[in-house]
């Protein structure tokens, strides 16, 4: 069967219309703040809208049938076309005149990675900064749609488990129609963004910074309007606690937020993934805070000799903030955690492979996959002693099918292979060991800050051009669950059946 190219181009045109519309919102922000680039942003938005319309109009008579192959193409090329068109505001305004750098910045935005090539963020026009944060917010919305409406239908990765919690055939689904489910989760996503904006404004941020950081937080992106990221507000702990709260919510399955608003708290407390996610955060925060409190160099960490409560609170806050930032793949920083202690360098590197919950805006492997892998691993010991026993892996008191377990095992193997190959390629571009493995893990997990020459206080500007394209590729495959993109690279995918 041939691919239905008309429906593919129609959907891609629709995505361009959305992208152009959001660019016009950034144009309005530029006009309000009189930053001098209003016309350039308007031109970028109109150009994107016209391109989208030129793709949609000729394909308006498409057959309204989409199978799995078209789904894979729309998801992957949709992200690519959003990234390519999303470069226009940077290029038209001159904020990032180099196309390769602009593409990396844009892909980092849409994939909610948060890695930047900008050396001085604070001189960038406000309209462009707003667009930069908007790419995060759009990407976060897109991930919710993928998780709810598309990936379960394609049978990709561990998302079938999430499908069983939301739009699948069971009593816990939010609503019978997938589109209505996505709308409800979008409403929660939007509501959280507005709520965080208000709280940050009340806590002391100006409105512009509050809007941008709310969009970055809820998308687990990490772009900031300040060169020092959230460390800019180290003297305002309330701001950091607000961001901690919303990073936690953004890294949680959005279906659980829906249950919370419906008063179904027991569903949340009984959710296996949520319990493990919360346990990880609590345990890892205690470890990080204790090491900061007792071991960190006070001249580096800005945490003085551990004698008074204020210093203990600071250790707890910084530890919790960075643990959540890395686990949820947000990438905000309050300090250069690579200087706290060698143990914490390895510790945070390991957390890059964890990820938030399925059905959240976080990147990474996802907690639910780790949970299934751990449980299956323990069952292998029992199976060795009782080879004839039927011992299924259970998740939320339900047996998980063998197909899903094998799929998760395949995902994890492919993820680690992608990390190894990614590191090797970066080393070919002349990066040292720490930088290579750090940027590979960070790009693939959509974390942002890496290690070595690309640590929390550095950026990706010094990467060679080819390495920037490679980093963008890793960001894309990591964000789209590996299989979605990599299957397009296989010859049999394109054969007509």
From TrEMBL:
Keywords: Cell inner membrane, Cell membrane, Ion transport, Membrane, Metal-binding, Potassium, Potassium transport, Transmembrane, Transmembrane helix, Transport. The chain crosses the membrane at residues 7-33, 39-59, 71-92, 137-164, 185-208, 238-261, 273-294, 339-359, 404-426, 469-494. It is a multi-pass membrane protein. The keyword Endoplasmic reticulum does not apply. Its main location: membrane. One of its GO terms (molecular function) is metal ion binding. It is found in: Cell inner membrane. The keyword Chloroplast does not apply. InterPro entries: Cat_transpt, TrkH. GO terms for cellular component: plasma membrane. K(+) binds at residues 112-113, 221, 329-330, 446-447. Belongs to the TrkH potassium transport family. This is TrkH family potassium uptake protein. It comes from Bizionia algoritergicola.
